[in-house]
Amino acid sequence: xxxxxxxxxxxxxxxxxxxxxxxxxxxxxxxxxxxxxxxxxxxxxxxxxxxxxxxxxxxxxxxxxxxxxxxxxxxxxxxxxxxxxxxxxxxxxxxxxxxxxxxxxxxxxxxxxxxxxxxxxxxxxxxxxxxxxxxxxxxxxxxxxxxxxxxxxxxxxxxxxxxxxxxxxx
Length: 170
Description:
By secondary structure, the chain is an alpha/beta fold. Helix content is 22%, strand content 28%.
């Protein structure tokens, strides 16, 4: 299945895409955000947090590595958002320093990981991969794909495609 791709015209559009993704997430899901500095990873996470009912301000946890936020699903159930930023890690060997494995399939929430390439081969078995990249003046391309391309994440992509039916994509 090809990635689902959008062009976001501003930070508000990027947050709206994140909020729509969050409506479909459930405990145990992991979202990996790939993109250069300033690509919009934290902005997309702010949208996910908003969609999950997180009330506190979302900033990238660059120095603390992990930020935990309490939220709720659309049905009112409690859910945690685990926001991880691996930018400062030297490599895979640093993952044990903060309990990386507990965030690979979080039972009580969802994990959103910035800079997942720093985790090397220590990635979860199943995840939603979101790539953010420049697409022209003040535009960014947001591509969403399932990894591996089967199971729960494919269902999520199909539901996301349905949710955005009629919305212009790239």
